[in-house]
Amino acid sequence: MSSRVIVAGAILTAAMSTALAEAPGSRINLHDVVADRTVTLHTPAGALPISYSGNGTMIGRAKDLEFYTGSAFDRGTWWVVADRVCHRWRSWLGGKEYCVTLRMDGQRVHWRSTDGYSGTATLGAKRRTYEAGLMN
User: Roughly how many angstroms between the first and final C-alpha of the chain, as a whole number?
Assistant: First the structure.
């Protein structure tokens, strides 16, 4: 479970941290930051890209991390609560809700899950609306 929490946390935190970098000192709409982007979590075992849709759905492709996640692919939902990005996978992480906070340190995004796991991630470019809609 700990590896799965780390992966999920990293993804969400990365998105929020980039938002902080883009608009320092202002109130950030975390939904707008994460929506229609792919966030890649960096773990000791490999990278985990997660694509977030603007409608609150997400898709993850574990590839090299299948031994942690239990499957190479999963879908789920994500949402924002206060200063946290939360998510729930269909099967990964036992289908439980997990939330993360994030912060930006230069170009590096740091994430921390509510249960204390932390790591880094990168935030992909914002997809155009018609491209983002194709992932559903």
Answer: 27
Token pair 């990278």: residue: 47
User: SS3 breakdown of the chain: % helix, strand, coil, rounded to 5?
Assistant: 30, 40, 30
pTM over 0.90: no
Beta bridge partners of 80: 85
- Take residue 98 and report the two structure tokens written for it: 């997990």
CATH topology of domain 2-133: Lipocalin (2.40.128)
Residue 9 pLDDT > 70: no
Q: What angle do CA 26, 77, 34 make, to 5 degrees?
A: 25
Domain boundaries, the chain: 2-133
